[in-house]
Amino acid sequence: MTPSTPNRPSATLPLSDRQRARARSVQLLALDVDGVLSDGRLYYDANGVEAKAFHTQDGVGIKMLLALGIEVAIITGRTSPMVERRVGELGIKHLIMGRDDKWQALSALASDLALGPEELAYCGDDLPDLEAIMKSGLGVSVPNAPTYIQENADVVTQRAGGYGAVRELCELIVDAKGQWPETMRRYLATDDTPKE
């Protein structure tokens, strides 16, 4: 029996026309790490070595955007070899670490890429992310963020950070751009589908 092709992303939130228009304009998605790509907890072993867990479904979502020519950036206040490794695995070109001034970092990157604020999406979960959430064309937060962060976002994902929130956001952007059917065809038509 041949499975049917999914008509819509399973995680797509119901969007207003305004939210959908903002998602359709996105050319660069920038993501915080702790609390967005990870669950926000810091794990240390007895030797003080830090560990992070990343959700593989988020990785596939990021690869969906990259395949459509949408830029992805990681902007984090911490410096971490684990983040460097993950970014390398996913083929993300833009990694900015050690920056709590997220909006300034994102603005500089957007300028380098000749993108306006309306073409930016930013997803974060805490105070260092707030300005970027508020000033990006599509400001996104996660349900594990403080309420006052969520209230300033255009969209709050259903899934928590570290548990598929980024995948949900990527699917939302792909769908808003009308690229969901093409994305599904690409994954179903080849044997060299990107794996996570």
Automatic annotation (TrEMBL):
Keywords: Hydrolase, Lipopolysaccharide biosynthesis, Magnesium, Metal-binding. It comes from the Bacteria. GO terms for molecular function: hydrolase activity. Its cofactor is Mg(2+). It catalyses: 3-deoxy-alpha-D-manno-2-octulosonate-8-phosphate + H2O = 3-deoxy-alpha-D-manno-oct-2-ulosonate + phosphate. SUPFAM superfamilies: HAD-like. InterPro entries: CMP-NeuNAc_synthase, HAD-like_sf, HAD_sf, KdsC_fam. Its EC number is 3.1.3.45. Homotetramer. Catalyzes the hydrolysis of 3-deoxy-D-manno-octulosonate 8-phosphate (KDO 8-P) to 3-deoxy-D-manno-octulosonate (KDO) and inorganic phosphate. Belongs to the KdsC family. NCBIfam families: KdsC-phosphatas. This is 3-deoxy-D-manno-octulosonate 8-phosphate phosphatase KdsC. It comes from Larsenimonas suaedae.
